[in-house]
Specification:
Transposase_IS66_Orf2, Transposase
Length: 109
Amino acid sequence: MGQVYIVCGKTDLRKGIDGLAVLIKEQFELDPFSGKVFLFCGRSKDRFKALYWDGQGFWLLYKRFENGKMNWPRNQNEVQALSSEQVDWLMKGFSISPKIKNTKAREFY
């Protein structure tokens, strides 16, 4: 499989292969036939769709998490390339860009 891209923000998951391919081509000016994997998330963030062209046809995968939700980026109208590590984080419900809080060291007496 090719590079994985996340379509940030909410996508209407009622769309099928054709609707998602048009979204990739027209809204983001990317090629849905490129062999890249495109991930889409709906409002509830407990399910997503993946669109992939294998050279002969499209794969449309749908996953629903039974417990928990994904930490999906909210930036509407943006697509981001993900590393394999970021894909793993996303599938486990973690953020694709974790932030570390700055905490002051506590003095112990």
